[in-house]
Each structure stands twice: as structure tokens, then as C-alpha cells.
Specification:
alpha/beta; Rossmann fold; 2 domains; four-stranded antiparallel sheet; globular; binds iron/sulfur cluster
């Protein structure tokens, strides 16, 4: 039997705008969740986030838990419907006329952190993986053949693992099955929402390497969400830093990790645990708890924890700069805005 799956770096026939047209553009996405009994208040989970994902890249998204990154992932697939904002996929606006959500979901898949609950416990894993091709119109046996081939691509012997049920697999094996399920229908982009956070460190490395291999093999674009900065650095080309529902810094991964511009990004990087005892941090690099997302601080949301906060920070929400070109590194902070009136403008 010849290969049933499309792979290799050849030009994707679904590509519409060429390599320079972003695969995904998110513009001013918002999602506020009403809080019962709060007198009309809401949790501002995602509060006006804009970014692009370029064809073939991995864009990492980082931030503390509760910053809105998982809600953002769900908004991109309309698993949670945005209150406002626009999504453009390879030049097509995601709406009922240009690119309906169903058509978007054929090109974008998601892998969640919880590998067990994503699988049907009463279905052998080969059938779980075959479900996608079957729904796409393949005959039952052909869908099973495609699933077997995909299980092999994610490092699971299809004869050995195909007939097993999810409870008979380890966490890493289950996550491999979830990755197989995501890839088997031939998406162009995969959203990976904390895909290795529940795994042991040794297994984590294997799954990360697998994700890198599959990306090359299937010519994929990744959006990779994690609270683990080291993991994000390993996999990503660029990174977007979120704080309280907003993007505060975006740039190439090395630039952001070596020359972070936003005080929050610096604090996040400084709080990474070090294996070197001489470099262990004794004091928390960031003070105070994250503010309540129901009632976030005025102006820059970070001003209640920022040691550089001044009057303009309390009053005005700093804009994220203009982001053009693959090397653009932009930040939403008044210290980087000539017009803001911040006194430390020249000292950052
Ligand atoms: Fe700190 Fe002000 Fe910059 Fe916000 S805008 S990060 S409060 S200096």
C-alpha cells in the first residue's frame, strides 16, 4: 500500500496568497465572560488581542495561568465565539460568506493538554484516529488504513497500539494518539494548547521532538501555548507574551528572550528556575498577585506590579507597536513610546 497521507514541504495546493501572506491574522479579538450575580461585571479573558501567524512558523504564546491564552486558542477555532474582532485565514475572512467556521476547522486543528479526556474511552485508538477521515467521506477500511499510517508517523506501532483502548496507554502514548487525530485530516495549522504540560520531563522531550519532526514532514504551522518558557523557546520562531487578556510583547524568540522589552516579560524570564545554585533567585522578580480580571487596573494592566509605573501608566493603555516583517519586535509599554511622557524613556 502506498502512502495515504500527504507530506513533504511541497507547495500546498490550498495555499492562496503565497509564502508572504500570513496564514492567520487575528484582529482585536475580545471575549468577556459575564459573572453571575456581579451586577453586570465580566471576566475580560481576552481583551483586544491582535497578531499574525506566518506560514510555516511556530508562534509561541506565554503568560501566567489565567492570562487568557487558552481562551485565545479556543477563539481561533470558534470553540468559544468571540464577542468582537476578526480572523483572517490565508486571506479569507472567517465568517459565513468567505470562510465558514467548518471550512476553517478543516484547515486548523487543536491538541489539548488533557490527553485522556480528549479520547473516547470506549473506542480503540485506531478507530478514534480513523473517525476524521471517515467523516471526510473515506470508506471505513480506507479510513482505518489512513489511521494506521498516521499512528506509525507518531511513533506508535499500529498493529500493537491500534486495537488498544485509551486506558491501556501511558500519558505520552495518549498524547501521540491525540496528535495523530489532529494531523490525520491534513490540517495546515495546529494549535497546541499546553500539549506536554501533563507529561513527565523525559516523555515531554520525546513529544516535543516528535512535534518538530511532524511539522517538517507535513509542512505545518504551529501556534504553541505554554506556561513553560524553556519549552516555548525550544519550539518557537516567535513569541507573544500575554498579561491579563492583552498582548504586551511580540517578537522573534531570541530577541524576546535575550532582550525582553516589557517589564512583565523580564519578570517572567527572571522567574525561571535555574539549575545553577549560583544563579538561583531569592526574591520574587514580580511583586503582588495578578489583579482580578473582573476588575483589571486602569491604563496599563501591569501598573500595579511594575516598579517603573508612573502617572501615564495609570491613565493610558499603552498600544502595542506596529508589527511588520519577520524581525519586528514590539512592546506595549509607555517607556517605549516617545509620546507617552514617561520619564524613563531614554533609560530602558
Ligand atoms: Fe510599567 Fe508603565 Fe510600562 Fe506598564 S506602561 S509596563 S506600568 S512602565
Amino acid at each position: 500500500m502506498g502512502p495515504l497521507l500527504r507530506d513533504g514541504p511541497a507547495l500546498d495546493p490550498r495555499d492562496r496568497g503565497g509564502p508572504h501572506q500570513p496564514l492567520l491574522i487575528a484582529r482585536d479579538l475580545r471575549k468577556h465572560f459575564p459573572v453571575k450575580g456581579s451586577g453586570g461585571k465580566s471576566v475580560k479573558a481576552v481583551d483586544g488581542v491582535s497578531f499574525t501567524v506566518r506560514k510555516g512558523e511556530t508562534l509561541g504564546i506565554v503568560g501566567e495561568s489565567g492570562c487568557g491564552k487558552s481562551t485565545l486558542a479556543r477563539l481561533l477555532l470558534h470553540l468559544v465565539v468571540p464577542d468582537a474582532g476578526e480572523l483572517v485565514f490565508d486571506g479569507d475572512l472567517v465568517d459565513t460568506r468567505e470562510l465558514p467556521v467548518d471550512a476553517l476547522r478543516r484547515q486548523v486543528q487543536i491538541v489539548f493538554q488533557d490527553s485522556y479526556s480528549s479520547l473516547n474511552p470506549r473506542m480503540p485508538v485506531r478507530d478514534s484516529v480513523a473517525f476524521g477521515p471517515f467523516v471526510q467521506g473515506k470508506k471505513k477500511q480506507q479510513a482505518r488504513d489512513i489511521a494506521s499510517e498516521m499512528l506509525g508517523k507518531v511513533g506508535l506501532d499500529p498493529d500493537l497500539f491500534g486495537p488498544r483502548y485509551p486506558h491501556e496507554l501511558s500519558g505520552g502514548q495518549k498524547q501521540r494518539v491525540n496528535i495523530a487525530r489532529a494531523l490525520v485530516t491534513g490540517p495546515r495549522m495546529v494549535i497546541l494548547d499546553e500539549p506536554v504540560s501533563a507529561l513527565d520531563k523525559s516523555i515531554e522531550a520525546q513529544v516535543l521532538n516528535l512535534l518538530r519532526t511532524l511539522k517538517r514532514q507535513f509542512n505545518l504551522t504551529y501556534l504553541f501555548i505554554s506556561h513553560d518558557l524553556n519549552v516555548v523557546r525550544y519550539l518557537s520562531d516567535r513569541v507573544l507574551v500575554m498579561y491579563l487578556g492583552r498582548a504586551v510583547e511580540i517578537g522573534p524568540i531570541d530577541a524576546v528572550f535575550e532582550r525582553p522589552l516589557h517589564p512583565y516579560t523580564r519578570a517572567l524570564l527572571a522567574s525561571r528556575p535555574s539549575m545553577d545554585p549560583a544563579r538561583r533567585i531569592e526574591e520574587a522578580p514580580i511583586s503582588g498577585d495578578p489583579p482580578n480580571p473582573i476588575d483589571p487596573p486602569s491604563g496599563c494592566h501591569f501598573h500595579t506590579r511594575c516598579r517603573f509605573a508612573e502617572k501615564p501608566c495609570e491613565k493610558t493603555d499603552p498600544a502595542l507597536g506596529i508589527w511588520e516583517g519577520p524581525q519586528s519586535h514590539v512592546v506595549a509599554c509607555h517607556m517605549h513610546d516617545l509620546a507617552s511622557g514617561h520619564s524613563r524613556l531614554a533609560n530602558v
